[in-house]
Amino acid sequence: MPKQRQENKTNGADKDNQAGITRAADFRSLYVNFARLGFNPFELSFFFGEAGTTPERLDKVSVEIKTKIVMSPIEAKLLAQMLTLTLSNYEKKYGVIEIPDEAKLASSTEGD
Questions:
Q1: What is the residue extent of each domain of the chain?
Q2: How far is CA 107 from each of CA 10, 27, 38, 68, 75, rounded to the nearest angstrom?
Q3: Phi, psi (5° rounding) for residue 94?
Q4: Contact indicator for 49, 68 with CB cutoff of 8 Å
Q5: Cα 89 → chain centroid
Q6: pLDDT, tens only, 25-84
Q7: Among 60, 65, 36, 38, which Cα is nearest to 50's?
């Protein structure tokens, strides 16, 4: 692992400890490259998964949903602000993230 990345992870852990944030015993990290969102009047649902092909079906993409996160609209709005700020900082440091036309959003949100 590059030294800079290790330092960033350490700094983040130090900030979490200062804020009283700890990891649960069953904490796990997931790789996802697929997201769908849903909502109702009381909450927003985030479905995360992994999209890909299988050796048997290289011509068809399938998605395995790995987890669902549910949060209040206020928490979702705060998350959107954090994502916007984090992506802005990322692009300042590493360059603009270009989204290919075929990956642009059509309609990825729907009510539950």
A1: 29-92
A2: 38, 31, 11, 19, 22
A3: -115, -10
A4: no
A5: 16
A6: 999 999 999 999 999 999 999 999 999 988 888 888 899 999 999 999 999 999 999 999
A7: 65
